[in-house]
Amino acid sequence: MDNLITVVAAVLYFVSIAMIVPGVVNQTGIKTKTVFGSAALAVIFHAWLLGDLIFHNNGQNLSILNVASVASFLISVLMTASMFKARLWFLLPIVYSFSAIILVVANFVPNTFMTHFEHNSALLIHISFALFSYSTMCIGALYAIQLAWLDHKLKSKKSLAINPNLPPLLRVERHLFKIIIVGEALLTGTLITGFWFITDMFAEGKAHKGILSFIAWVVYAILLWGHYQNGWRGKRVTWLSVLGAFILTLAYFGSRFVKEFILS
């Protein structure tokens, strides 16, 4: 049954992509309601699959692939819910492609890391903060990439035509910093709950997560300070946004990847 759910969800994601890409490339209309319907069904089946993969009678399987699939699911949900207001057509194919690929891999590649939230509810709070902060900052990185691309197109004057499927540059910038502010608040919650609830946060094999997460927090704090105090924008904003997301990826997935795939 899980295999069928996986295939259906992946197909729906790619159907959504197939309806978006021609409109973005050819600057033609996109059937927004049809795309939304397909994407909404995809995330519903994605959630169904995650329930089967994670929750078991003997605990919760938080393997690296399952956690990555949860993050991609959260990003897909948030981006799908915002597609009408924010004109995210340039970014949605990237988001849906990643979600489709990671859910297929998570289902067909055996991977297990059992935990027990019923014995440690505080851990669930910390992990929830971590997942939401990571997903938010990944969206911020995507916005930063879109911002850089739009800026490049305007400066190079390769395309002066107004594409109705792309948002204005200044709107993307405003949304980017709103996203980073929310992500920084969630990342702050992640660090606080980690220090408060996890007694061995800096034990051997775990310390890098807290250290890298704090470094990422500092990167985003510098970015926000630079923008609002010194008017930073452009390439500096893009690089710092992507760097912060990359550091968080190393913090959350780096050692887990080595342990579960390379050393196993």
Automatic annotation (TrEMBL):
GO CC annotation, single: plasma membrane
Sorted UniProt keywords: Membrane, Transmembrane, Transmembrane helix
InterPro entries tied to this protein: Cyt_c_assembly, YpjD/HemX
GO molecular function: heme binding
Residue ranges occupied by any Cytochrome c assembly protein domain in the UniProt entry: 39-262
TM helices/strands, residue ranges: 6-25, 37-56, 62-81, 88-109, 129-150, 176-198, 210-228, 237-255
Name this polypeptide is given: Inner membrane protein YpjD
Organism: Vibrio eleionomae
